[in-house]
Amino acid sequence: MTLNLEVLKKDEHNLVFVIEGISIEMANALRRIMVTEIPVMAINEVIILKNDSPLYDEIISHRLGLIPLKTDLETYKLPQDCECSGFGCPLCQVSLTCEITNTTNNPLEIYSGDLKSNDPLIVPVTPHIPLVKIDKNDKVVIEAYAILGIAKDHAKWQAVTNVYYRFFPKVDLDDSKCTKCPDKCIVSRMCPKNLFDFSNNKAPKLIKDYQEKCALCNACQLNCPENAVITDREEDKYIFSIESDGSLTFETMIKKTFEIFNEKIEEFQGSLEELDIDLTA
Ligand SMILES: [Zn+2]
Hints:
This protein is an alpha+beta fold. It has helices spanning about 25-35, 55-65, 185-190, 220-225, 250-275; strands at about 5-10, 15-20, 40-50, 95-100, 110, 115, 130-135, 140-150, 160-175, 195, 205, 230-245. Zinc ion binds near residues 82, 84, 89, 91 and 92.
């Protein structure tokens, strides 16, 4: 099987790519792995030694759990796979502490960036997430422990904030039929994404790279009075869009997705071989 992957757009939090050569079942399997099975770091245990803030300990703990943390999958192991059997050791756990006394005369806001990690690589993705506000002379002392986990167990361990795929669109425009069209091009007006260029007022043209924007709404095919447009989708070709909170790089995420996918296939094959199916029944 050959897989083709072409990146259309990439920035810090978004990745859009075209993937070719896989079935829809495999595309969906990849999506589900990304949503639920890629491990990331999140705070799982909090010890609140002092909390003078107006927020309950539970609310602060909940907020701490939701802070996206930069994750290093090379160094850290899932607690259940660790030699310490999940008891907590430098290979499966990171501690983050925060000790702040408001010595100013104004209320003081505490942010995710105020958490001090014992591993400089495992820190909040952004230091600007507000945690709690304390009044003058008030104090907050927190000890928190982050571990790797997967979103199947809790959404705080979700590596992606959103992931979806859609069919790769194919729009055939036969502009020889356009000369007979009685009206101004209705198709170029009906397309909600403005994918038809009708600037020359004679025949519409599809804009360059229209596939990236086309949502296959079919408005063109349904509204063209001369049946000049036929919409379809390419076989085994999809556009994937991934949104990430930044805890993992997209490279690591994609690599890990295929790693997990292959593990699942191997496990399935192993289970099949063990099965003793009686075909005579
Ligand atoms: Zn351990």
